[in-house]
Amino acid sequence: MTTVEERIRTIIEDHPIVLFMKGTPQFPMCGFSSRAVQALKAAGAGDALYTVNVLEEPEIRANLPRYSDWPTFPQLFIKGELIGGCDITVELAESGELARLVADALKKD
Hints:
By secondary structure, the chain is an alpha+beta fold. The protein has one domain (about 5-105): Glutaredoxin (3-Layer(aba) Sandwich), CATH 3.40.30.10. Helices cover about 50% and strands about 15% of the residues. Strand 3 (about 75-80) and strand 4 (about 80-85) form a beta hairpin. It starts with a helix and ends with a helix.
């Protein structure tokens, strides 16, 4: 049986762009998650965006803030690294940096 931390690590390592959010991209359950998804789509993440609905994953919701040392949702990880929450994601999108991070994450080595 894997621990919740191992599950979180596996998700983050297996997907180049991961958003732990409330709801789904089609049906976000909070404004912050909705804005983060919109910013990522605009930055070109498209089908590469892997999301985890923390409302349906109570163990992840309870443990991710400890794992990442980030208290709120959504939480964006790109190439295994915590980028931040909604505000940081939107700021990066507005500066053009998010599109660069997304493009870099989607490059085939």
